[in-house]
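Incident review: delayed structure delivery

Summary: a single-chain prediction request sat in the queue longer than the usual turnaround. Root cause was a stuck worker, restarted by the on-call engineer. No data loss occurred. The affected request and its eventual output are reproduced below so the record is complete for anyone auditing the incident later.

Affected input:
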Amino acid sequence: MDVQLFGRPALELLSKRLRRIISLNTATRRHESSFRRTKKALNIPPAASFLLSKNSPIQDHIIFNPPPSAPSVLHTPLKFLPKEDKRRQLLVDSASKFTRTPLPPPIQRPKPDLQRHHLSEADVEEIRRLRTENPEKWSRNKLAKKFNCSSLFIVSICEAPESKQELEKAKVEAVRARWGPRRTMAREDRVKRLALSRRDG
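Output delivered after worker restart:
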């Protein structure tokens, strides 16, 4: 009875070791066999038409080696067809069937050409009057669109009233008050980098 109890663990250990050895051997053999098979399958010799022979020209030339399939007019290049070949006419007839449809109009509209030096003194005074009386309605872009000029020209000839400027500054300060320390530090660093770039330039 005691001998049987001592013999069971030894048999279990031996069986486990044998299983591991067998599994390792089979795995390595399968790996080696699959690698050999892959290498052998990829070792394909080049086609005979791609190899140079004694009769091949010395200079560079075009090798036309289509896949083995039925000849098609659409797949055969026109350069390789003789002049008297009937397939040339077939190729022209097939190409004439596919008519090109006109392209749709462009989505982005072209920018209007701005006239230069066309505003008179009366127009400039009118721009200043509109900008001073109602700056909320007549912004720079609206004035530039009405008088067909650039917004930079509007800035150069007139400024917004002080009430408008103070209102815009209050809006900016209200936005800055909601900034956290990280964004505040990032904006300060941006101002410093801008000042340094202007100084270096």
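Verification: The radius of gyration is 42 Å.
Action items: add queue-age alerting; document worker restart procedure.
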